[in-house]
Batch of 3 targets.
Target 1
Amino acid sequence: MAGTSPAMTKEPMAEPFSFHLKKTDGAARRGAFTTPHGIVQTPAFMPVGTQGTVKGLYPEAVAETGAEILLGNTYHLMLRPGPERVAALGGLHTFMNWSKPILTDSGGFQVMSLAGLRKLTEQAVTFRSHLDGTMFELSPERSIEIQALLGADISMQLDECLKLPATRDEIQRAMALSLRWAERSRRAFEARHAPGYALFGIVQGGDDIPLRQESARELTDIGFEGYAIGGLAVGEPQDVMLKVVEETTPSLPADRPRYLMGVGTPHDILEAVKRGVDMFDCVMPTRNGRHGTAFTRFGSINLANARHANDPRPLDAESPHAAARTYSRAYLHHLTKANEILGQVLLSTINIAYYQALMAGMRTAIEEGRFAEFYAATMTGWAQGDIPAL
């Protein structure tokens, strides 16, 4: 198979990528998709392994939270250690000791954020590495090649992501370029002959609903194994993001997974599942954990707050995750104030476990036809918050 990565040639071929929509409850969807490295239940949250690692956590610890798929970052892995090196070492799964599925982004978001370091043309984007100033060129074809070298189960098309607000003319220009790059990404992906692997298209269009719907229709005509909604969580208010999601998902094929990129808070995810989204990723669980914030069914808890200093209670005595049940708030407060690495590790793990528990709860609720009740109970729990220690 000419052009196929070493990682792909070593893997036994699984059945073709497929998505099974098992149940709907309103617009909320319960499903599963099959990849060469396993099955992923949806709705699903993907912890972010930017540089081949979920920061501070063993892969085994991430798996123990219930995570079934990780996200790898094409831009960062392209710069260091380089996709050819990863491929020569057996692919990203082997390199980072993660046997379950991996989705890689295209590198577009990071490149587009380097406004002062890049030049955009129809052919590609050229940019200087933020590490050492080395020049790189990233085209749709090169992005697909890099993701294949990494051995990603799911690859993403290269697109142009704009920060909002932006003018309609600028949004339309970027959306049209992203569609042309989608066609090139699709051709490059098909040329690699990788049965079982998947490529997702990315809907763009900013906060302009007609442009979003046009993008979704055009991408559907090209044909992808799944569809992502990109270009959100880039500064727009939550109500704008949710309106775009609500108006875009009906334009996407019902028999393919839907992925809302870079989102978000537990509240964002709950609202997006309510509107028909299946997949999510965000750095928030680990980033906030490193800064002393825990996500729980009581809402977020800032462990740096002095009121936790003498609190012997765990974060959540009923959590399915052991660390949330066994470490006291007083100890987590101490670790946070002392800037101890263990505190960052524990809170990052607890947060990912909470996200996974939230997804599992939504999956069960949709299966049982009670998503509205689950939604209301979850919102009430967050609104009421936790009860301070007496």
Target 2
Amino acid sequence: MRIAFYAPLKSPNHPVASGDRQMARMLVKALEHGGHSVELASELRFYLREPESKSFDALKIEAREEVARLTKLWDRDGKSDLWFSYHPYYKAPDLIGLELASAFAVPYVTAEASYSRRRNVGLWADTQALVARAVEQAALNICFTQRDRQGLTDAIPDAALGMLSPFIDTSVFQEMPARGCPTRLVTVAMMRPGDKVESYRMLAQALGQIGRLPWTMSVVGDGPARDEVKAQFAGLPADRIEWLGAIEPAAVPGVLYSGGIYVWPGYGEAYGVAYLEAQAAGLPVVAQDIAGVPEVVRHGQTGFLTPPGDVAAFASAIERLLVRNDERTIMAAEARRFILEERSLDAAVARLAELLAKIPVS
């Protein structure tokens, strides 16, 4: 098929790295590996940071102009066979695809759409209504987590839903170099206010409880909350923590291979691409049993998921992997097997083929 791909929150070509951008790129790659021709339909970023009517109205004007541009393009060059909208949610609804798909009788598909009733306040209620309308009319809504699936089911009971597990391109992890330092902890996360800062805060508190153990840590990440994040670790020995800042994605596997355990509390994580990469590199994970994290980490098999907000339990799980070499080694091997065999690009290509084959295309 000729597929028009659109990510209202962040284009696959956006200059700032993030999990959203990475998954958008992975979906494009998976669709292409499945034999489809994928065209980036629009670079328009429809992101409403705050519920402000003035900003919303301005974005709607931009969306109408983009619909007009694409209408002329499709009239001239022919329409796509399918519109694929990645990650529409209350702050970034898709105001382009559904209108075009309806006008040209093209199947409309969403991936990682989300809906939460607690967001139905003020302007957010209006933007969520747009998401609900798109989900209701979509030929298929591809869910990455049971949490998102349940949210859509509760709000739109008749929505057409299908599951696709979060995945990564495992090609860069196929060869396993010599194992890194088993007591070196690794985390990869942006430094921004909100959930990220809260996760860094919890991590610092947990490490403070196991200072007697000989751990060191590498931190990959940067952002506007850098100073606030580093301040959380001020009470820990500075020589134990290596702040690597923002690095190129191609360099991340090398950092992961240098360590022995991946640690990240995971407040607010939709699922966390970094957890997938860490396990592919053979690192067992310590995270919280929260949000979408259980979709990508198997408790007791590829890592430990601790009760939300329980710093002592989080610290204890890290300690357990630091001191129990045999258990850490077994979990490391299972983590790597899990991702390479079950969460690879090839697995995603096969699953997408199954899902899309059910959609009638004219």
Target 3
Amino acid sequence: MFENISNRKWVAALLITMLVSIFSLRPHATRGQESFRKLPVLQVAVDEDILAAFVDEPCRQFEAARDKVLLGENRQAAQHLRIASAFLRLELARARADSKLALEASVSELQRLADAVENKQLKTVQVLQQAFARAHYALAGHHCINSAHRCCQPAALTDKQEMSRVGYDINAAAIHLKHGEFWGGIKPNEDTLRVLDVAQLSAEQLINFGEVPQSDVVNAIQSVRNKLEKLTGRRISLAPPLTDDDTLGSSIFR
């Protein structure tokens, strides 16, 4: 699915590693701390196609953290948790207002758990696994909302490049939904498998061809949304808000 960016993947890996290293550093008080705080905020734009190639990275970090905890290697486990938290922060930087809250909560939770693990204060591995499930659900909701907002205007359905990006978000939402159920100890049932099949088929067609019937796009996004709402009990609004300043026009989800 990602053949079109495979030749750039090693560059992307280096960039992502550098960014994650920056975001996962723990602050330490120093004599020049006040001067440091006055420095301008670092802002880095990461191509969404590059981020799409690393959609499984949080789960890989979660698996590594759990394994290190079971081995008693607490410092290494904490570092994996901080790296995962940094990936969520990368997504948080491009999240819409209605998906920021869940992402921010997961970022904070992973940081707290990293400290607890490092200080040997973690009670059970199940505490980690439930946090991992919440993080994946937060990411799934974020990508679901992004995909809906991208194609909320009927005119967007004729823009192949934009619809390809919609495909990346739908695919990411489906992947994080699947990972969330895994960490939550939920065995995928027929309904989940149908949702994943519908979402990933539409995503693949959008990524490869840039066009899918409007009804298929809507069905894919709504199916993931509905499943997430059942799992989390949290309302996920797909249509942009109607305000006097709303310039997005009519929404295919409204």
